[in-house]
Design the sequence.
């Protein structure tokens, strides 16, 4: 057996596979924990052939009464127990499981109390209000019409944001302009099954993403900053249209980076990547949401390309070891040399079964084309776009010339369509 082991949850996805293969190069072997049979099937069908040599043991969480019993089973293998280095609970829906399992395994990751703040949007902002003077918008969990009315009066302006306390990707997020709309949208939020109903004060201005990594000492390294271009279409507000990389020279970069660092330090996150969404208005930055994980949509893949350094490898090092950051961990001179955009498709009408996909080859010939995130195949169902998860396609553009990217982004939407 290998000299060193670590636990990783649900390794059947690209982000996880990057870290598993990197750590294998340095004699770290994985102990894979699958949260259910479906996750194990995803691994077997898509990643087993490339990752099997990197994994020394597999456990199915549902085979055990609870996480303590699972931890005992893992530790009962002496060859694991003697050299267990860390845990990688890399995705939104496993970080709280990973924190609890890590505590049972005696690993120095983040305690459940810290990670719970990142899984519950109300708990996160409440903690910030109680433990800092950082700007945070008003929010409240509501269960009755009276509580809704009290929040409306406290905020004193429209719109009001209605969302679930858990979840990601703008799923179940609505903007209400009246009491009637709030009550209607509360029913939609409740139907998502993603926690309780949360009302928040709406913050105007531009919306940004700040991504980074923390080490064991709680130091914060900002790796990349992006601005969201969200638009209204077919009666749905705030749809993802494109995401544009922000250079260090842009006036937003420094205050956003400082604000995000203060947030993460206050929340107490360590040894983890993080993904934060913020608004920036006349009063400066204000947090919208934050996850103790990488950004979705291959954003960290793109950021790694910009830095010419894998952020997955960097995160894997900090999941495993108590090490400081190094000046060579990111390369912002290279980051600033190129422009990058993530283009999201918006579908205004449903297609029960796609009969044709047009313009792919022409899009691939665009000067700034870098990669296809996804395109729906012929025969598949194409829903109306209502959130991040129902985008109709995702295309990545990368080029030194911002005018070229702008031109290609507009041309792309003309070329690519479904029938």
Sequence:
């Amino acid at each position: 057996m290998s000299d060193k082991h670590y636990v990783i949850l649900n390794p059947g996805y690209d982000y996880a596979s990057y870290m598993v293969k990197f750590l294998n190069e340095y004699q770290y072997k994985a102990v894979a924990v699958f949260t259910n049979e479906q996750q194990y099937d995803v691994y077997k069908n898509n990643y087993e052939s490339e990752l099997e040599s990197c994994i020394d043991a597999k456990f199915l969480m549902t085979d055990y009464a609870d996480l303590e019993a699972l931890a005992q089973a893992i530790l009962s293998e002496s060859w694991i127990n003697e050299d267990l280095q860390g845990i990688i609970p890399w995705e939104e829906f496993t970080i709280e499981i990973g924190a609890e399992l890590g505590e049972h395994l005696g690993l120095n990751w983040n305690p459940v109390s810290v990670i719970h703040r990142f899984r519950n949007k109300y708990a996160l902002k409440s903690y910030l209000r109680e433990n800092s003077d950082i700007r945070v918008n008003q929010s409240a969990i509501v269960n009755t019409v009276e509580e809704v009315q009290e929040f409306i009066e406290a905020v004193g302006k429209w719109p009001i944001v209605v969302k679930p306390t858990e979840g990601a990707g703008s799923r179940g997020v609505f903007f209400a302009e009246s009491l009637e709309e709030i009550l209607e949208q509360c029913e939609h939020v409740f139907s998502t099954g993603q926690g309780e109903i949360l009302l928040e004060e709406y913050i105007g201005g531009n919306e940004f993403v700040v991504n980074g990594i923390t080490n064991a000492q709680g130091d914060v390294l900002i790796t990349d900053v992006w601005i969201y271009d969200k638009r209204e279409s077919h009666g749905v507000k705030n749809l993802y249209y494109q995401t544009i990389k922000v250079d260090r020279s842009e006036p937003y970069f420094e205050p956003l980076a400082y604000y995000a660092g203060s947030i993460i330090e206050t929340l107490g996150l360590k040894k983890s990547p993080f993904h934060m969404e913020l608004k920036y208005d006349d009063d400066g930055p204000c947090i919208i949401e934050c996850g103790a994980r990488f950004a979705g949509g291959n954003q960290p893949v793109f950021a790694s390309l910009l830095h010419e350094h894998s952020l997955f490898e960097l995160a894997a090092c900090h999941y495993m070891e108590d090490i400081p950051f190094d000046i060579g961990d990111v390369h912002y001179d290279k980051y600033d040399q190129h422009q990058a955009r993530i283009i999201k498709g918006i579908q205004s009408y449903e297609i029960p079964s796609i009969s044709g996909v047009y313009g792919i080859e022409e899009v691939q010939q665009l000067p700034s084309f870098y990669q296809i995130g996804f395109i729906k195949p012929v025969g598949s169902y194409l829903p109306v776009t209502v959130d991040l998860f129902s985008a109709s396609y995702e295309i990545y553009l990368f080029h030194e010339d911002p005018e070229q990217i702008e031109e290609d982004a507009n041309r792309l939407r003309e070329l690519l369509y479904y029938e």
Observations:
- The chain is about 35% helix and 25% strand.
